[in-house]
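Deliverable D2.4 — example input (structure tokens):
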């Protein structure tokens, strides 16, 4: 198939977003002009759709909605800005820049995301350009952090389990760069690059995506076994590093994962990516490019809910995809190699890497970096960044690694950690250390219930139950989201809660501890009292009846609470 024949075979009707993208002249639209409009803090919907490709969403503070409505004021419009770095690795200077812009232009907090990016909330329209400029001056970018393109490429950030992390991270950076949009729109609008092309750009300038980009977002993650912290089976395209005796020999390729669904619509479901074969490292870019192009050409452009790659594969069959991929590559993947995952969480505290440097993984509750009374996390990290000569690594579980610390600097950094009481989570239960919650209210326009702001207090109550049952140190993966879009990858947790309405959640059980099995709905639309009522006896029974090294997710299946789910097609069964 020719890259220019973009809507084929999707000559079927397409959604309004497709028209907006097509008309936008490679993501320009009227963004440059609407940003100048001082009458409103908002931008028109068409430009908002395009803005996502530049890394930002228009939002409004939902806590203020009613009050402003009563006062007949427009909603408190503000922008979320997502800053990405492949594998989540940034320098101390870049950390300090994020800290500075968060104070100067955003709400004074930094949010570390589930895909190893940064988010700023509360940036006003008038400050967007300055913020994006400062981000770029520090050599980070917001381009393609959101939108119908390849998103931040995830990569296991921990160097202590094998010697190949640096190499794998380089591949994450290479594939990320290769799949960046090539349109100069971003540089013209935000960075005042002179408009080089007066006439419309040609398709050759966007050879991978073409003028309408992808039907939907696309996600890539690289795991380094035995850690599956990137939840490789949740990715549209996952790579599993195969290493032997500390040497990277290649990757197994997994395709068609995804988490999003809609309540009450069984045609939407979370799905696990499936392993289709093995490639050498040098083949990775080619495989990623061709996979993206297949999705570009065959993904559903009519119904956005059905436009993710997982549906393209499930509708047409895995065999069809593999044949199409082989045809476009001109060569065949080898048979997948054996691998083993044993967890998808983070490992906290100090560890020595195989390069002799030190790494400290901090527990950051739900990824929110801020100063609170009694816990000056943001200030402490700023002080570390001022003296640190290594790097910072955002983990796929919303935590932070202070990485590549030399033995000389370790004492100094340890002293700051102590002075600010920065925690590796040891005072908390293992359940909390394995928890994630998405942003949800008050910024997320799609949230049906609280998540980030509620999860800590639910965990306080669950920790009492764990203490009673003697399970405080038992690692159990728990996740919460404010809606079924699945931003904290809830369908892979051993226990999860998905928002249904204010204070109400659907409860799911039985995900695999290493992110290799989906969970299943156990109770619908329940509040906190019922959650505790359900979990107390279950956890007590687990404490008494579990088999040796049996994880909670496995136990609830064996004990008959829920059925095992190995494919998204059985998720609603
Ligand atoms: Fe997400 C939309 C936050 C990871 C699936 N996600 C959103 C938006 C932008 C809401 C919106 O469209 O208006 C949220 C902004 C909230 C806010 O106020 O900040 C949002 N998603 C997040 C983050 C910040 C959650 C977090 O707590 O860290 C994560 C940012 C990742 C990043 O840095 O790039 C985030 N989102 C995910 C993940 C997890 C992942 O990628 O590993 C998923 C599930 C995996 C997947 O894509 O299948 C995810 N987000 C969605 C979806 C559902 C997509 C679908 O297939 O239907 C939406 C809604 C949409 O796209 O229409 C969404
Ligand atoms: Fe918002 Fe839903 Fe994503 Fe949570 S899961 S951040 S509520 S879109």
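Example output (designed residues):
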């Amino acid at each position: 198939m020719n890259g220019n024949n973009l809507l084929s075979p999707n000559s079927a009707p397409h959604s309004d977003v497709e028209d907006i993208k097509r008309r936008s002249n490679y993501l320009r639209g009227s963004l440059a002009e609407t940003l100048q409009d001082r009458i409103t803090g908002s931008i028109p919907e068409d430009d908002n759709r395009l803005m996502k490709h530049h890394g930002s969403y228009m939002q409004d503070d939902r806590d203020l909605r009613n009050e402003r409505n009563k006062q007949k004021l427009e909603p408190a419009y503000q922008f979320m800005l997502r800053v990405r770095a492949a594998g989540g690795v940034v320098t101390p200077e870049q950390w300090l820049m994020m800290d500075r812009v968060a104070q100067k232009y955003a709400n004074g907090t930094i949010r570390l995301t589930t895909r190893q990016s940064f988010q700023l909330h509360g940036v006003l329209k008038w400050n967007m350009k300055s913020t994006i400029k400062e981000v770029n001056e520090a050599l980070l970018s917001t381009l393609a952090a959101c939108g119908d393109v390849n998103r931040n490429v995830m990569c296991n950030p921990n160097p202590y389990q094998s010697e190949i992390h640096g190499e794998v991270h380089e591949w994450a950076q290479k594939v990320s760069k290769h799949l960046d949009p090539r349109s100069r729109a971003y540089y013209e609008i935000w960075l005042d690059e002179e408009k080089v092309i007066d006439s419309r750009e040609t398709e050759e300038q966007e050879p991978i995506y073409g003028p309408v980009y992808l039907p939907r977002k696309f996600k890539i993650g690289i795991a380094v076994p035995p850690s599956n912290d990137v939840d490789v089976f949740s990715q549209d395209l996952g790579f599993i590093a195969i290493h032997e005796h500390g040497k990277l020999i290649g990757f197994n390729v997994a395709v068609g994962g995804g988490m999003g669904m809609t309540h009450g619509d069984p045609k939407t479901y979370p799905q696990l990516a499936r392993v289709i074969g093995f490639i050498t490292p040098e083949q990775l870019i080619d495989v990623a490019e061709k996979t993206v192009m297949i999705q570009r050409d065959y993904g559903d452009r009519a119904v956005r809910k059905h436009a993710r790659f997982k549906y393209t594969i499930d509708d047409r069959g895995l065999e069809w995809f593999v044949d199409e991929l082989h045809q476009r590559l001109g060569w065949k993947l080898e048979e997948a190699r054996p691998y083993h995952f044993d967890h998808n969480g983070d490992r906290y505290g100090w560890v020595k890497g195989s390069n002799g440097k030190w790494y400290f993984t901090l527990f950051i509750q739900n990824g929110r970096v801020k100063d609170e009374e009694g816990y000056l996390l943001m200030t402490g990290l700023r002080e570390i960044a001022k003296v640190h000569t290594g790097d910072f690594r955002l983990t796929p579980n919303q935590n932070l690694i202070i990485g590549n610390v030399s033995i000389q600097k370790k004492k100094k950094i340890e002293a700051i950690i102590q002075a600010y009481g920065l925690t590796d989570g040891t005072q908390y239960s293992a359940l909390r250390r394995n928890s994630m919650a998405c942003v949800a209210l008050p910024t997320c326009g799609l949230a049906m219930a609280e998540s980030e702001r509620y999860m800590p207090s639910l965990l306080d109550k669950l920790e009492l139950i764990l203490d009673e049952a003697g399970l405080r140190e038992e690692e159990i993966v728990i996740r919460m989201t404010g809606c079924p879009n699945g931003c904290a990858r809830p369908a892979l947790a051993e226990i999860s809660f998905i928002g249904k309405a204010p204070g109400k959640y659907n409860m799911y059980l039985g995900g695999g501890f290493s992110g290799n099995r989906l969970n299943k709905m156990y109770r619908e639309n329940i509040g906190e009292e019922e959650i505790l009522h359900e979990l107390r006896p279950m956890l007590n029974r687990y404490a008494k009846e579990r088999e040796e090294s049996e994880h909670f997710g496995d136990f609830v299946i064996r004990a008959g609470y829920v059925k095992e789910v190995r494919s998204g097609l059985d998720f609603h069964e």
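DSSP finds 17 helices and 22 strands in the chain.
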